[in-house]
């Protein structure tokens, strides 16, 4: 991979341009990072008013698998990445015929299918040192019926569609075999995995960036708190989890990325489970082949963000080890924040929030607030965790955010 330097002009007279499939908030923050370095950017996204399309030099407004749109993206860009969980892996493979694409369609395809993803985790368990929750693949009515007799230990469990799930969607919690049959029907009888419900004491995730040449860097694990299956709070500071577990999670995530031959930014999510040991056991949950909501704090708290590393990795630039310079807590801002207790639309009290020290507001340019919709996030940085927590509490109070007890 010949590096694509920002500000350079190629033999065809084109400005160095980086492309992204998908126009959501992750694409927007990628575009910001690429532009700050001096790249031109192109976004392929069908929605006319997308967070990333609105801030990019070029916006190709077609479907993700539209041949003409993909050809135009390849023509404009010297390298291409993705930001969207469910972008067709085939589209990435098509682009890869003519341009460097990171991550590649094959690994994105694995991450998009829980069955393949779990098989990958199992295949590299020896090197990563972690396994996933006990599970069964359910693709036929006979397999669903067999759980009661053959895999009863998986109940109570969580039934998850193999494909197209996110933010807790495509998941049903089941206690009994009857629940399971009903839930499988409710999910449309599609391929699923049934996972044993584990006694979680915490959740964390690790961001890894890997270059074309195999160079790997990673961030320390961040501890995540979910509310209703959606990330609510990320804790990113020294002491956010037991150091021994943090080291294991970080090493496991790097091993998983290496085993995949991954290029780009990968987020690996872990459960910490109560297994009777002092700090609990580590179980790998899932991976996202892109920057992740739990890594947004890196924009304001580190000397290189997850989006900077995404740019560096895809463009073949060096990957220096990032350094976190501030303690940080990130609060996700869902559309709920824009409604008062009686369901009336309201403007959040930004004036008070922005008067607090160390607050960094990121809104994604989404016009319409809806309950559960990710509208933005607020990162609070400071010199130490005590001060960061105090401001996070105050900000969460002002915005009426849930999950406060967990801060
Ligand atoms: P994401 O938004 O991260 O893509 P998702 O919809 O893909 O989420 P998961 O990460 O599989 O879903 O699950 C969402 C949340 O549900 C987890 O973060 C965890 O809190 C809970 N959960 C999932 N699986 C289990 C399990 N086996 N045992 C206990 N809790 C679980
Ligand atoms: Mg998840």
Automatic annotation (TrEMBL):
A family per Pfam: ATP-grasp
Family annotation (PROSITE patterns): ATP_GRASP
EC number(s) per entry: 6.3.4.18
Naturally occurring in which organism (per UniProt): Hymenobacter metallicola
Record-given protein name: N5-carboxyaminoimidazole ribonucleotide synthase
A GO CC annotation given for this chain: cytosol
Pathway: Purine metabolism; IMP biosynthesis via de novo pathway; 5-amino-1-(5-phospho-D-ribosyl)imidazole-4-carboxylate from 5-amino-1-(5-phospho-D-ribosyl)imidazole (N5-CAIR route): step 1/2
Role, per record: Catalyzes the ATP-dependent conversion of 5-aminoimidazole ribonucleotide (AIR) and HCO(3)(-) to N5-carboxyaminoimidazole ribonucleotide (N5-CAIR).
């Amino acid at each position: 991979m010949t590096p694509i330097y920002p500000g350079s002009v190629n033999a065809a007279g084109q400005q160095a341009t980086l492309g992204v499939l998908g126009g959501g908030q992750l694409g927007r923050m990628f575009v910001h990072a690429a532009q700050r370095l001096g790249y031109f950017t192109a976004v392929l996204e069908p929605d006319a008013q997308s967070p990333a399309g609105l801030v990019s030099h070029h916006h190709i407004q077609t479907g993700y698998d539209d041949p003409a749109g993909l050809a135009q993206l390849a023509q404009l860009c010297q390298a291409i990445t993705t930001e969207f969980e469910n972008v067709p892996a085939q589209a990435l493979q098509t682009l890869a015929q003519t341009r460097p694409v990171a991550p590649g369609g094959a690994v994105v395809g694995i991450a998009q299918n829980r069955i393949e993803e779990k098989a990958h985790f199992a295949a590299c368990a020896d090197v990563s040192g972690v396994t996933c929750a006990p599970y069964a693949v359910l693709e036929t009515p006979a397999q669903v019926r067999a759980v009661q007799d053959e895999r009863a230990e998986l109940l109570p469990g969580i039934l998850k569609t193999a494909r197209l799930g996110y933010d807790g969607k495509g998941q049903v919690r089941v206690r009994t075999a009857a629940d399971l049959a009903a839930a499988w029907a409710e999910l449309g009888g599609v391929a699923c995995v049934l996972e044993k419900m584990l006694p979680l004491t915490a959740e964390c995730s690790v961001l890894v960036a890997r270059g074309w040449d195999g160079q790997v860097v990673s961030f320390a694990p961040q501890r995540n708190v979910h509310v209703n299956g959606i990330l609510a709070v990320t804790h990113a500071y020294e002491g956010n989890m037991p150091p021994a577990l943090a080291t294991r999670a970080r090493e496991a995530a790097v091993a998983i990325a290496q085993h995949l031959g991954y290029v780009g930014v990968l987020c690996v999510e872990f459960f910490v489970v109560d297994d009777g040991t002092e700090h609990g056991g580590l179980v790998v949950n899932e991976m996202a082949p892109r920057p992740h909501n739990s890594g947004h704090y890196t924009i304001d708290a580190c000397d290189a963000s997850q989006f900077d590393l995404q740019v560096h990795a895809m463009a073949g630039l060096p990957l220096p080890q990032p350094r976190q310079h501030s303690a940080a807590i990130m609060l996700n801002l869902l559309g709920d924040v824009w409604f008062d207790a009686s369901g009336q639309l309201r403007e959040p009290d930004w004036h008070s929030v922005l008067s607090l020290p160390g607050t960094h507001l990121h809104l994604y340019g989404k016009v319409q607030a809806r309950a559960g919709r990710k509208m933005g996030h607020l990162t609070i940085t400071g010199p130490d965790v005590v001060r960061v927590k105090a401001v996070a509490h105050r900000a969460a109070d002002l915005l009426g955010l849930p999950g406060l007890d967990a801060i």
